[in-house]
Write a structure and sequence with these properties.
Order of helices and strands: EHHEHEHEHEEEHEHEEHHHHEEHEEHH
Oligomer: single chain
Radius of gyration: 21 Å
Largest sheet: 7 strands, mixed
Strand order of the largest sheet: 2-10-9-8-5-3-4
Number of strands: 14
Number of domains: 2
CATH architecture of the largest domain: 3-Layer(aba) Sandwich
Distance between the termini: 35 Å
CATH topology of the largest domain: Aspartate Aminotransferase, domain 2
Length: 383
């Protein structure tokens, strides 16, 4: 049957019908008073989601574009930065920083393991000359399903006094508590196709007062991603360049849906979905790639011993029209990833787990009792 695709990947994520309907409206002039009112509401609601009174700017980019903006606006060529690398997107930060000539010091962990906050503390406490200008972290490492301990790492950054904290929250914003002001996070980047529940095309970046001070001394050439004009235009409820008008109208609807659910409701739902998915995987005898206590509420990475993860994904897609994400780089074929981010509910997890059980049986895997995965997930939902 056509048009029954079920996205269970970390992005793009499912889009609610009322958001799709908002997206389908006729475009309006981006310099009109009507659009300015929408921008004002969207900006205010973005601050609510980020839990900040500081600037939250909207860019027409992917999450990687927001990451690049986070580099070029706040540091200089030759500056020393600590970059947390324990997956593909931590590695991407390092490549981005190196592309702009930064002095990159990697703080690494094996893919599937969390970053060690004490390693950051050691570097920061040894930096008596205050040469480290920024610490760059991926909060939810999408490639491995690991949630890094941003709160503790940030506490060590704050003790350093000089360095900025720059965060990739692309799959944590809208799924995990990221209290920007309470933690004093300086620069936080995210993307529309994740927890925001709209299609790809928008990037978001929150900027603290301390980061704006660094901006004044940042000299890396920039134009389209120069955040200064975005700040000035945001104060007037407009944008420096032509935005994707309909995406912002869709964002208006999605943010109102999120406000209706409430921050605690959003965070507890994602935690519940993660817990149910992990318990189901264990009940099926499948390995979990992220250790207990460090699983991401956005996505669960499963390492099926003795099975080709790509074969599982293939059966899930062909037989049940459910899209799971595969392993990246050296993990291809070794893991598959179940997204439970954004517009996902308990029913979606039960459907995905039931289909996974059937797919495993079709592939000849008998290391579980039929129904065990669904039962484990249902127990979580019944609590």
């Amino acid at each position: 049957m056509e048009n029954k695709l079920m996205l269970m990947i970390p992005g793009p994520t499912p889009v609610p019908e009322q958001v799709l309907l908002a997206l389908a409206k006729h475009p309006m002039g981006h310099r009109s008073g009507e659009f300015s009112k929408i921008m004002a509401e969207v900006t205010e609601n973005l601050k609510w989601l980020h839990q900040t009174q500081s600037d939250v700017l909207t860019l027409t980019v992917s999450g990687t574009g927001a990451m690049e903006a986070a580099i070029i606006n706040f540091v200089n060529t030759g500056d020393r930065v600590l970059v947390g690398c324990n997956g593909k997107f931590g590695d991407r930060w390092a490549k981005l920083a190196q592309a702009f000539g930064l002095d990159v010091v990697k703080v690494s962990a094996e893919w599937g393991q969390p970053l060690d906050p004490e390693a950051f503390r050691a570097h920061l406490e040894a930096d008596t000359d205050k040469k480290i200008k920024a610490v760059i972290i991926t909060h939810s490492e999408t490639s491995t399903g690991v949630l890094n301990d941003l709160e503790t790492i940030n506490r060590y950054v704050k003790a350093h006094g000089e360095a900025l904290i720059i965060v990739d929250a692309v799959t944590s914003l809208g799924a995990v508590n990221v209290p920007v002001d309470d933690w004093g996070l300086d620069v936080v980047a995210s993307g529309s196709q994740k927890g925001y529940m709209i299609p790809p095309g928008l990037g978001f970046i929150s900027v603290s007062a301390k980061a704006w001070q660094a901006y004044e001394n940042a000299k890396i050439p920039r134009f389209y991603l120069d955040l200064g004009p975005y700040k000035k235009n945001a104060a007037k409820n407009t944008t420096p360049f032509t935005p994707p008008v309909n995406l912002i109208i869709a964002l208006q609807t999605a943010l109102n849906m999120m406000k209706a659910e409430g921050l605690e409701g959003i965070f507890s739902r994602h935690q519940r979905l993660m817990t149910a998915t992990r318990e189901a995987a264990k009940a099926l005898g499948l390995g979990l790639f992220a250790p207990e206590g460090y699983g991401s509420p956005a996505i669960t990475a499963v390492a099926p011993t003795g099975l080709d993860a790509e074969q599982i994904r293939s059966v899930m897609k062909k037989r049940y029209d459910i899209a799971l994400a595969g392993g990246q780089d050296h993990l291809k074929g070794q893991i598959f990833r179940i997204g439970h981010l954004g517009f996902v509910c308990d029913r979606d997890i039960l459907a995905a787990i039931a289909s996974l059980e059937a797919s495993l049986r079709e592939l000849g895997y008998e290391g579980f009792t039929p129904g065990a995965g669904v039962a484990a997930a249902a127990r979580v939902f019944a609590q």
